[in-house]
């Protein structure tokens, strides 16, 4: 039998008194999958050195990351806007924690060469390679030749109107990735393509806005597939994003967050963030002490890509709902909340002008499952 399943979730960070229980609701599903990806969104260290550009410090004790392999993870991206929140020592401690469990990491390292380096796996006769990048991060988080950090994919923003910067004309924000960074990504994907059968590219990108895709996310995802990627995984937004099938390859524009503990939300109860984002802002939510995010972010997924050996055979996702304990709960067939999540995915996919449809919910591995059509 050569069939196997790749699974992926979004942001993961454990900062609670009982970290070993963080995946109580979801590990049964994750451990049934053959290869599982997540985005490690923070630093695990007992000796944080906060960089001057750090914003919200997403840092937890080193031991809090000790059970991620037991939860079912095999590979994690560490290229994101919180990976250096504990300083270079915090990043290196995080990498040591993950790798010590046998979890391979992409997108960050002790230097730029290590941050850009791919990792590979073998499953049922197929060789799978991963690389990772980040386009959203504070200044100084990027790796250099002899400095730890993440693999950057820099983005240039500018304001454009139909007739230039003209009074009274509504502006339109344009965004493009630096051409030299695109060329580097293309070269890395093409090189990896020669070594493996399946290429997975992880991107930390976009904006914290519900159901919104930036211009550069769309273009970067398609360029990745054009030069050899088979699966593109996006994260950062905390909200789910639509799924696109481009040249018969899936692009998950936003996996949401999965088990992501965030404390200290009282610091943004007011101010410009609340005025700018309204109810989408991050502030304390009654009954959800570890999740100060809006209600829509409690809808999440485990993305699933099925393979017959080296060939992609189907794409779908398991709808999940985050509860008051900040557990991600894969839902059962017949649960109306699963239908709600699939409906939500249909809505945001349509709003993003993506052409994907989602099939009727079926049962798979004991949970509700929606196939991408």
Explain how this protein is built:
This protein is an alpha/beta fold and 373 residues long. It contains 8 helices and 22 strands. The protein has one domain: Metallo-dependent phosphatases (Purple Acid Phosphatase, chain A, domain 2). The model has no long low-confidence stretch (mean pLDDT 93). The strands form 5 sheets. Strands 1, 2, 5, 6, 17, 18, 19, 20, 21 and 22 form a 10-stranded mixed β-sheet that branches. The chain has a 6-stranded mixed β-sheet with strand order 8-9-13-14-16-15, covered by helices on one side. A two-stranded parallel ribbon has the order 3-4. The two termini are 25 Å apart. Belongs to the CapA family. This is Capsule synthesis protein CapA domain-containing protein.
> Number of helix segments?
8
- Mean pLDDT, rounded to whole units? 93
Just give the CATH class. Alpha Beta
What is the CATH superfamily?
Metallo-dependent phosphatases
Provide the number of structural domains: 1
Taking pLDDT < 50 over at least 5 consecutive residues as the criterion, the unreliable ranges are none
The run of helices and strands is EHEEEHEHEEHEEEEEHEHEEEEHEEEHEE
User: Using DSSP, what is the number of strands?
Assistant: 22
Helix percent reads 10-25%
N- and C-termini, Cα separation: 25 Å
Let me know the largest β-sheet.
10 strands, mixed
**β-sheet strand percentage:** 25-35%
Shape: globular
Radius of gyration from the alpha-carbon trace, in angstroms: 19 Å
What do we call the CATH topology?
Answer: Purple Acid Phosphatase, chain A, domain 2
The SS-based structural class is: alpha/beta
What is the CATH architecture annotation? 4-Layer Sandwich
